[in-house]
Amino acid sequence: MSIPTLARRLGLGDAVVIGLGAMIGAGVFAAFAPAAQAAGTGLLFGLGIAAVVAFGNATSTAQLAAVHPTSGGVYAYGRAELGPWWGFLAGWGFVIGKTASCAAMALTFAAYVAPAGWERPLAAAAALALGAVNLFGITRTAQLARVLIAIVLVVLAVVAVVGFAAPRAGTATWSDGVFGAGPVGILQAAGLLFFAFAGYARIATLGEEVRDPARTIPRAIILAFTGALIVYAVIGVVALRTLGPDGLAASPAPLVDVVLAAGWDAGAPLVRIGAAAASLGALLALIAGIGRTSFAMAREGDLPAFLGSVDPRWQVPRNAEIAVIVMVVGIVALGDIRGAIGFSSFGVLLYYLVANLAAFRQSGGVRRYPRVLQVVGGLGCMALVVTLPWPSVPVGIGVLTVGWGYRMLRLRRQGRRRTP
Predict the structure, then answer these.
(1) Where are the transmembrane segments (predicted)?
(2) Is residue 109 part of a domain?
(3) Which of 92, 112, 279, 286 has the most CB atoms lying inside 10 A of its own CB?
(4) Range of 210's domain?
(5) Does 77 fall in a domain?
(6) Percent of the chain with pLDDT over 70
(7) Domain-embedded: residue 5
């Protein structure tokens, strides 16, 4: 029986666009407000810390992807470099954490465009619609991602210009200074903002569908990361300058409030369109990435086998993507944005800890970056995970325990079947 595989259809531009769509939607419109709640003006230091940790993780991912160009991202890399249990830990953390991210993006989309009381139904409808797009092939995903990211970048450029032209927020809102929240608050903001950078992993999870993967994936990861960092830095400064830390922390739609504070009421609908496009772009890429990781895990026997099937016409892991959509809709019905972001960050920090360990282990000609970057990335992941909002850590540990128990039971059943 042949092992199901996916077709290589994506080029460098497609991969960069999918990565940018995953990162920019996640960070600009969702993560700054909870980061301001944690650290006030110090969120800019948190952004810097998150960027350093994320860069270490990005280079580790790029180095691994060049050697292991297959679906599943760090799940596949962990299995190959460290062993099956490490791969499972990374894959389970990614699938569960990023499913929560999907819910956060769907709820962010609805927060900007839905009438009062219709946020959750519209968020669920968005997840269903984008899941349907993904079912028609990865090239359809890339085409829609190009349109969405173009809209987002135009809108963010307008917000930046308007925000810098607006009056600065009153000095009273800055009275605590950048260190007012203390190191714990800054690190908590870094953990929340790390959620924004993690979209480059989507490029790696699509490794089985990228042409010339050893060359394309590392370049796409670094290009997407650099572009997203520039956008985050500019918009973070604009939001703090215009709203102040207290106003930013209290805002359910910060970039709308930026243009309103500048006196440009007519710009609010434009920003809402950009926020909707960014959130949808992130959601589109997330569903694709989780589906591929679930597919890879099922192909190795770490998830139920029915998730490992490939649609013969569209060459997508159809059952895996349908399962992801069902889970996202369930979380949308029950969760909230801040809780989803915190839980997602827990799972993704664990995922990248495994990536750094796997890349650190590589040697010889496959090494592309100095080991110090993997040390920085790994230590940063461990430091940030303990600063996340308190419900995120125990819930995350509980979900990991469920996954561990599931794999143990599966291995025991396999052992019994093999016993004569």
Answers:
(1) 12-36, 42-67, 88-114, 120-137, 144-166, 178-200, 220-240, 273-295, 316-334, 393-409
(2) yes
(3) 286
(4) 12-412
(5) yes
(6) 89
(7) no
Phi/psi of residue 389, each to 5°? -50, 135
Task: Collect all residues with Cβ–Cβ distance below 8 Å to 414 and sequence separation of at least 6.
Answer: 301
Place of tokens 């003006």: 41
Distance, CA of 27 to CA of 35 (rounded, Å): 10
User: What is residue 136's three-state secondary structure?
Assistant: coil
Task: Read off the DSSP letter of residue 208.
Answer: G
Question: For residue 276, what are its two tokens?
Answer: 């909707």
Which residues face 71 on adjacent strands? 206
Task: List the structure tokens of 222.
Answer: 């670094």
Q: What is the mean pLDDT of residues 92-112?
A: 84
Q: Per 3-state DSSP, what percentage of the chain is helix, strand, and coil (rounded to 5)? A: 80, 0, 20
Name the phi and psi angles at 68, rounded to 5. -125, 75
Number of domains within the chain: 1
DSSP label at residue 8: -
pTM: 0.80
Residue 58 inside a domain? The answer is yes
User: Which CATH number characterizes residue 143's domain?
Assistant: 1.20.1740.10
Helix (H) and strand (E) counts in the chain: 16, 0
Q: Is the dihedral of CA 345, 346, 347, 350 positive or negative?
A: positive
Nearest to 223 by CA among 10, 16, 14: 16
What residues does 206 pair with on adjacent strands?
71
More confident residue, 156 or 338: 156
Distance CA 207, CA 94 (A): 16
Asked whether the predicted pLDDT for residue 1 surpasses 80, the reply is: no
Give the orientation angle of helix 392-418 with respect to helix 84-113, to 10 degrees. 140
What does the alpha-carbon distance between residue 387 and residue 397 come to, in Å, rounded to a whole number? 14
